[in-house]
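Render this sequence as a predicted structure.
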Amino acid sequence: MKKKTIKATVSAVSIAAGFSVVQADEVTATQPNESTLSVESTSPSSTNIKQVDGVFVHNGIATVTKTPTSEVVEEARTIKEETDQSVSNQESALENAKASEATAASKVSDANVDLKNAEANKELATPEKIEKTKNEISEVKADIEKKETSLKDASDKVLEAEKERNQQSEVIKKDQDKISEQEKKVSTAEEAVATAQKNLDGTGASEIIAERDKAKSDVSEKESAEEAAKKALENAISEDKNKAEELSKASADEKTQLSASQVSAKQLADAKKVAEEAANALVKAQKEKETAQKVLDGTGVEEILAERDAAKKNLDATTATENTAKQELDRAKEADDKKATALKNAKSVEADQIKKSQETAANLSSAEEKQKQAQENLKKAQENKVSAQSNLDASESQLAQTIANRDSKANDLANKQNSKISAEEELKTAKENDAKKASEISALTTKKNQEEAKVNETSNELASATSAAQEAKENKEKAGQAVETLNKQIAAIKNLTIPQLPQDVIDAYKAYLADDSDANKNALNDLIQKWFTGSKYDFGTPETEYSPEHQNIVIKGWPNKDIVLPIDDSEVDLDNLTDKQIEALSQYYVLLANNLQDQVWGNHDFIVTKESVQGIKNIAKAYADENKPYGSGHSDSALAKDGLESIAWAGENMSFNNTLLGYGGYYSEAKETRKATMSQLYREVYDAVISFITNDVHAYFGHMKLMIGEKAPTKTCAVGAANSFTANGVGRMHFIKFKGQDAHLEYVKDEQTGEYHFVNVDDYYDKGIAKPLATPFDTSKMEDELTAAKAKQTAANTANDSAQKRLEKAKSENDSSTKALKETTAKLDALEATPDQTPAATIKLENATQNYNEAQTQFNKAQSALDQLNADIQSKRQSLASAKDNLDQATKAEVKAKSDLEKTKLENQNANQNLKQTQKLVEELMSVPDQTPSAQKKYDTAKQLKEEAETRYTKAQTALDNLNADLKVKQKALETAKEELEKAKIADKTARKNLDEVTKIHEKHLAALTTTRQTIARLNSISDKTPLAQKNLDEASQKLIAAKTRYVKAQTAVDNLNADIQTKQKVLADARAELDKELKVLSDLKAKKATDEAELRNRQNKVEELKAKESQIKNEISKLKTNLVALETLLDHLENADAYLMKAKGAYDNAVEEHRLALENVAREEAKLKTLLQDQLDATAQYEAVREAYLNTRTRQSEVFNDKVDHKMISLNPALEKSISENTSNEQVYSYAGNQAKYAANRALPNTGSIENWLVFAMGIVLCSFGISVSRKQRD
């Protein structure tokens, strides 16, 4: 009833309300569910924006006095968007102005530093200091000359060492060529042995005859191919010859035409000079003729005298100018030489300082970003603190008035409460009787509800316990199975045979690594053979027997039955191993190799990654595709085909599939089926690892080094193991180490010592790209898993026991709770059948307390307002405390960020200052133009002017002398002048004609030269065909020789088919002898290559040592040059201290003026922004006000009579009521404060303009007294 009464009250107030305006400062003070009435503001409008119809805007507050239309709303939105854009544009302009001001301030700071430096430099510029600096420069230059001499010697030594190393590389290349050729011979000998064996065994007749026929056919094909290649070579030679002749002719023509064009170019330059001289001579002759005519006519005396005097004065001046220009030219040459030297040294220092500046700039950028974020956080924390304090102050200011209002209502409530007590006592007895019954019902109802909840709880627990028990049982069984499986796996792996090297072998191996002499090598081999032969790691000689089925000898077993290898009988396709099979072989190789590394070095480095698995898979396929005999050795082309961008091969060990393929002579099922088992491939891995140790002396233990390492490992290395099987039945087991594709050496500087050294950089390992794959042979990991599995098993057993006990308990508790619920329900049903007296007593109490209701309602409202205000104050105090804490943290963070920024900025400033000084020096040096060209030009001009002045003076004096000559002489002079004039005209005409002819000739030569050069370029772009044709012929010839050799051998084999047994045995013996001979040669060649490779390593080490010395000298020279630049800069500043000081003062004054103008510009832009922000505030307030008024117009009537919100009663101020005009139009008025965070409107109550509203208002007050009942407990 309370809620219903409040609705009635609000409706009454809403109907009775007249005209109101919500002030801007009242928007934030008003509670969300309250309406506040006030008088409309009469302040005059003052805004720069356009005010739409029916809106009053003043200082960020917009009041709507007329219902707006959609057009008015759209117009207000447009005005708002325009002001928003203006603010955005002006903010950008202000940021630009501030950036310009910051730049100008930086210039002032820099200029001030430069000025102080110039003043200090001026004080230091004493003759003694200048002389001392010059001496230091001379000393540094002398040191540089010595170091450069040493550097030249070091560079020569490096070149010589590199030459020796390259020569040794060529030797090794030749060794490899010989080995490749010899391996072909070995392969041929092996085939001969196999053929002889077949002849002796009486098998393979059809194959031998077929081979003879195929060989004969192959010879015919190869002969035809060779003939075609010869013909192609002849055609290529002819075409290349024609091209060469044409190119030779074109080159000769180019040479001739180039010479002709150079000659014509010189002739053209001479012709131009002659034409200019002729033109000048013509002008002079014309002038002399006019002078002679004047002399003869008796005129021009004054002019001649004046000309003589002027010529004399001009001659004296040009002579002095020439002398001065000569002195300036000498000084200019000396100054340019000094500038060039200083500029060269300064640029060298500049390069180092640019790198340092870039590094510090990157650090500064990061620090600035952190400091900027810290400042933003601090600013936000400050704003939050101010906002929290403001909110708290606003709430606390209302506290006193709210308390007084509550006390007034309490007094009124107490008076009316006394009147109510007597009526309550009369009903006390009836209430107590009903209360007892109600209490019993309530207790039983509560008990029933509790027991129902208990039944639900026990039922749910029973279901949950049943499910948990079943799950725990399954977990127990799974844990037991996991423990059993791990035990079996660990037992199987722990029994694997892993070779264990004795200590004497390990010591001998390390001794050989330290000194690879023959003595140490043989000693190591002796110890290895002693350890291995007949040991538990030696399978022994294969046990063989003849198989009639296969008509060949087969291996039936091995003497040593105790060696344990991984057992996996799954089938392997030798032409297509899967990734999992390759990973398993790789992991087994890593298991063996890492154990050997641990024995030798105490740790290991091999891992298997998905990249190493994929890489070796692709490489093995490439080996198979190349289909080369085993004797061809390692294939660089196949190793390059890893197919990955992340890794590349770094080393390969390789072994022949002896056991799998029956050692070449015994029967092998794998050869026929091209299938095997994983167990067979595991055997090949084991045999290869043993062979790399026990059968590696001929390779100087290179395979052993690659497997075990030459020093203790420090970084991981990805490896892979895989098998390749060629179409010709050659099987290889490959073991390859991988490095990152971008692995390289970097020459870096040690920041502590200052020395440079090489560092191996490999992102594949350094950046953690290489992810080790889990090994199936790591028992330590399995044992950890077993321990965890046992713990999990124990936990599962414990959990199962607990779950079973829980299930039993849940069943018992569910039975008990169900029985108790039945008993309580029966008692409650019986009690509720008794009639209830409470409704009658309640009605009687409401009548007695009717006069009390109004006072209680008013008091509750006042108390609620006070409680809300106190809660609001407490909340805002907590918010203020939180804001202060956040502000403290933000302040500390900002101080730290600022400190870090200042530190980084100082480092950057120092780097930039050093760079700026050097760049300034470079700029100054480069800005100073070379003085020599200008001085030379001035001197040449002065010299020419002097010569012209001498000629002029001579002629002027002659003219003056002629004034006194007789008529005949004067006439003679005139005739001579005329003759000279005619000669000058003829010479000028001839010179111009010659210039035209020479120009045409030169242009013709240039055109011919351009055409010839285009021809040469075209011919050079055509590749010679002879080399490729010759290569094709050579290959065809080699193939023909091989085919003929094959045919001879095949025919010999056919001939041997019918030979007697003794002859066949001799053929087989000879073939084996030949094979042994070729194998011996091959072994000797490989031994020689190993020796040559060792020598190459020595020479490479020598190159690296010499390069290190060379680099050290370069570093010393760099430091000396840096010092020289500094000294030369100092000398220049000391010698020109006055000029630099004047320049610095001028630069400082200009910077100060520029900064002053920038500050004025910032002030102007800030003032503009302030005005625009006020406009934006006004425009936003106007738009939000008209939009809200427009939206609320349509729903106004329904909101008045069907208020859906639970409002509180509003008390009207009588004085305010009187101030509201009853004749105000029926318009809603909205007021928005533009300076608030959100422009939320408070709707005023409408005014109908009718006096009946006051009557309805009074009726509403009367209605509120019938709506609320309050219990005694609540009243107390």
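Summary. Residues 2-99+1162-1275 form one domain. The longest strand covers residues 647-656.
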